[in-house]
Amino acid sequence: MEYMIETKNLHKSFPIGNREELEVLKGIDLKIEKGKLTILKGRSGSGKTTLLNILSVLDDPTEGELIIDGENMNEAGNARKEKIRRYDMGFVFQAIALVPILSAYENVEFGMKLAEYQGDRDLRIKEVLRIVGLQKRMNHMPAQLSGGEMQRVAIARAVGHEPKIIFADEPTGALDTESGLAVMKLFRELVEKEGITIVMTTHDPNLMELGDVVYEMEDGEIRNVKS
What we know:
Elements: E1 3-17, E2 20-33, E3 37-41, H1 48-55, E4 63-68, E5 71-72, H2 78-88, E6 89-93, H3 104-114, H4 121-131, H5 147-159, E7 165-169, H6 177-194, E8 197-202, E9 213-218, E10 221-226
Parallel strand pairs: 3-8, 3-9, 6-7, 7-8
Antiparallel strand pairs: 1-2, 1-4, 4-5, 9-10
Helix pairs in contact: 3-4, 3-5, 4-5, 5-6
């Protein structure tokens, strides 16, 4: 069994004044398999977004180890972490951050330019827009798309440069139930057809059954694992 991400005794604290600290993560141990959809479930304040930020090397732990694809991030400098984020990772957020003056095609192309994608960009853009079901709307601007369609463009942009991992923070939070389920089914298709590892957060119990593994978080700890 190959793991894309492993953590060992991960802690994260934030200063809150008077030399006091708030401990948000309290010794997280997890293993995320390659080519699987892993869900971090928990209420607001459970620590899931803080954990996601550390797993995606957007933030550093206070204590413990983070290993990504066999490489210990404790030994990686800022330049190396930036390179990993740019080339090996894709990001999808609850707030759909498309560039409003760019078409769906151009938004995906923009992400690929940032990641310095070396393949045939036009072919890959059309391929990922087909995967997300928007091949006929590639020239539409964000304002001409529904919320669900915009999120699908954001997913196409995240996977365009063929990253190893997609991180998604409450990607269905701003969508209606039908659009949210469509996004989750799209994630499943990406895992099965593209072999991408996806790690996402959610508090929606209706989405749990679509994950390969679900880590339930409460008060900065993993309380249960379902697979």
